[in-house]
Amino acid sequence: MFNFLTLKFVKMKKVLVLTAKPFAPVAVEKIKKIVNEAGYEFSLLEKYAGQPELIEAVSDADALIIRSDKVTREVLEAGVNLKIVVRAGAGYDNIDLDAATEKGIVVMNTPGQNSNAVAELAMSMMVYMARNLFDGAPGTELRGKKLGIHAYGNVGKHVGAIAKGFGMEIYAFDPFIPKETIEKDGVKCVDSAEELYSTCQYVSLHLPANEKTKKSINYQLLSMMPACATLVNTARKEVVCEETLLKIFSVRSDFKYISDFAPDCIGEIIGKYEGRYFFSPKKMGAQTSEANINAGIAAANQIVSYFEKGDTTFQVN
Ligand code: 3PG
Predict the structure, then answer these.
(1) Of 5-9, 98-102, 132-136, 226-230, minimum mean pLDDT range
(2) pLDDT (tens digit, 9 = 90+) per residue, 106-135?
(3) Ligand 1 centre from 234 Cα, in Å?
(4) Strand, helix or coil at 14?
(5) Cα–Cα distance between 304 and 77 in angstroms, integer?
(6) Does position 205 have pLDDT exceeding 80, yes or no?
(7) DSSP code, position 116
(8) Ligand 1 atom 3: residue of nearest CA
(9) Residue closest by Cα to atom 5 of ligand 1
(10) 129 Cβ partners below 8 Å, 6+ apart?
(11) Is 89 in the pocket of ligand 1 (CB under 6 A)?
């Protein structure tokens, strides 16, 4: 026979942290504390082998905290108890939003929580390339160079603030942000992507990947860049058109590409364009303890707030 305690135990909500690329252990501990203090069960699956393991793990979870993990329709269908998925991070292109909406599952992100980490990486990659990948030969400085920020969201704004400290001249293009908002940061707002690319030797991408932005960084834009052009991509691999990338590498010996993820066409770049590219071995823009803690805590709190108060701030579907 059930008593009250048994009933409560049976109904305990389960929050599953599902991360192929694990958070820093300190972030996991903090997430666990929030979840347990709310009276929910905490569960962790890191470095899983593939989708089958993920699909099995979600079967009894009420809430998921994920990173770039692929939450497909199949995953959402396997999660028969799922009510909420929180992407601990900014981009949610890894989640099937239509499927989630059809199933009544709320999807959220944690905007801004890992922005500084990504911005620091973008700046450090610019320095690394400007200094010839630290090969000992004289490089160049960032001071006085023009930096174009393509999309002025949380990460773009941080990049601008840090780059100012380097003495760079900052420009930005973002059709979704009012000109006044950009200019009050001391950043010159331009009216088109064309103007940004034709003005700036460095362009740093901070666009989300969606149907409109995929492959949008095309030959027309890259060919407009001034001499010694460097494209910095800590956004998403998919926003750069790879046919364009190969063409620009071959026709402009001054073009450089630094990215937090290797393009699919990496095989056609390595060995051919040495000294003109750098790709992180693993996407690491948000890989700092601070970013993991910020995004992880925000995700856990958002889940508790949703279950306890129906708070849907940061819902993206
Ligand atoms: C984001 O969208 O927040 C970043 O790309 C970080 O992704 P990650 O959590 O997979 O490192």
Answers:
(1) 5-9
(2) 999 999 999 999 999 999 999 999 999 999
(3) 9
(4) strand
(5) 23
(6) yes
(7) H
(8) 89
(9) 91
(10) 230, 256, 258, 278
(11) yes
pLDDT at 7 over 90: no
* Contacts with 1 (C-beta within 8 Å, 6 or more apart), sequence order: none
Per-residue confidence (pLDDT) for residue 300, from 0 to 100: 98
Residue 100 in tokens: 């989630």
Question: How far, in whole angstroms, is CA 195 from its chain's centroid?
Answer: 25
Q: Is the pLDDT score of 191 beyond 80?
A: yes
How remote is the CA of residue 21 from the centroid of ligand 1, in Å? 10
**The pLDDT of residue 23:** 98
CA dist 244 and 217 (Å) reads 8
Sorted by sequence, the CB contacts under 8 Å of residue 188 that are 6+ apart come out as 169, 170, 171, 172
Taking the CA of residue 260 as reference, the ligand 1 atom at the shortest distance is 5
CA distance 93 to 100: 13
What is the token pair recorded at 93? 């292109």
User: Does the Cβ of 296 fall within 6 Å of ligand 1?
Assistant: no
Residue 10 Cα to ligand 1 middle (Å): 34
Helices (H) and strands (E) in the chain, counts: 12, 12
d(CA 142, CA 126): 8
Convert 204-261 into a string of H (helix), E (strand) and C (coil): EECCCCCCCCCCCECHHHHHCCCCCCEEEECCCHHHECHHHHHHHHHHCCCCEEEECC
Nearest to 274 by CA among 179, 159, 137, 140: 137
Site to probe by mutation for ligand 1, drawn from 46, 68, 107, 261 as the one with most ligand atoms within 8 Å of Cβ, is: 68
Q: Would you say the CB of residue 298 lies under 6 angstroms from ligand 1?
A: no
Q: Is 286 in the pocket of ligand 1 (CB under 6 A)?
A: yes
- The structure tokens listed for 234 are 């800590």
